[in-house]
Write the structure tokens for this entry.
Amino acid sequence: MTVRLRYTPALTKEPSLGGQTTASTFVLDQPRCVFDDYGNADIWLVVSLASAISNFNNSARPGTPETAFQNFTDPVQAYMTLNTTLANYPCSKPAGDITVLRVGSETSCAQDVTRPTCNGPLPGPGPYRVKFLALEGSVPVAETKWSLPITLKEAKSPNTISTTRNGHSAGMIAITTILSLLFAILLAGLVAMLVFWSSDSCSGSSTFSKPESVTVRRYNTHHVYDQPAARL
């Protein structure tokens, strides 16, 4: 006969962690001081569709096609994962330790049928319910209560995303964008005019008049011969 323990699994509240629930994972408290009387048992986490907890049989064996993660949610409606022993759930908690379980954190084995106990990403928002089950060999000896329904976050459709930001309407954002473009065009025009005026001023100050050419005349020196003296 399986002993029903009073413990109810719950989402972690202390310490406050970001991503308590995501689109494919959630974070649970570890079941410390819960299975102290079952030191020889393997402790498993059972993850089930909320609507199917009454169909789960504690005699189901982990690592079989009937409880494999890869077959969740069709046809398997509950899978078994995160097995460990009592040594990993002691009563004492070392200072500074974060003692939580993130369900759905293993992506590498999600499609690996050789790892049926994979702690793979959950396939949808749920809701899901979980419980811890202690097995000695294949015999169930103790179990916790089922958790409350756990619903994961859903990715928003693009059509549902608000077009407003910081309280401003879409029309206001459009007007602001148009004015920004006009200002940029005006600024570009002013810069172009300044460049044009600067280049024109520089070209005017560098104009010089062409110097007049100088004509140099050459004179040929004629040889002057002494005339012979007049004969008397």
Q: What stands out?
A: Helices lie at 170-204. Residues 170-204 form the longest helix (35 residues).
